[in-house]
Amino acid sequence: MSPPGTAAPPGFAELYGTHFARLATQLYAYLGDHAEAQDLTQEAFCRALDRWHRVSGYDDPVGWVRRVAWNLATSRLRRRAVALRHLARQRAEHVAGPEPDRVALVAALAKLPDRHRLAVVQHHLGHLSTAEIAEQQGVAEGTVRSWLSRGRAALATHFSDVRAESSRA
Prior knowledge:
Layout: H1 12-31, H2 34-50, H3 52-55, H4 61-92, H5 100-110, H6 114-125, H7 130-137, H8 141-168
Helix pairs in contact: 1-2, 1-4, 2-4, 6-8, 7-8
């Protein structure tokens, strides 16, 4: 490829400008993913630029770029199919779901205000000190202690209410 900041060789810019959109549209129809089609078309043109001294001498340089782009797209589809088959085999294996305690904790944490949840999770699960959380959040350490206190109180109330409901049932 040409070093950054240098002009493309004669003829390449015209080839690129004339054929990029058309080729990218064809690959989009083939792949069903616009961004991927543009990426692969760009890759094909980059490969042509790397070999421009040879490709520019071909009777049909755009044909060479088109063939490279289609080969790249076909390879991408094959890799995607292999990955999907692999994932399908992985899904067949049974993976135990989360324990009921974890589900209850996640549900309770979701009910906390964002700052309280952040402090509780980072302190108790992430093992960060109140000073570390304060520095990370750009607040006073007392503020973090307040968030922790309020978060713990809300969790205690939540789990007390849940226990009371389950004992009535």
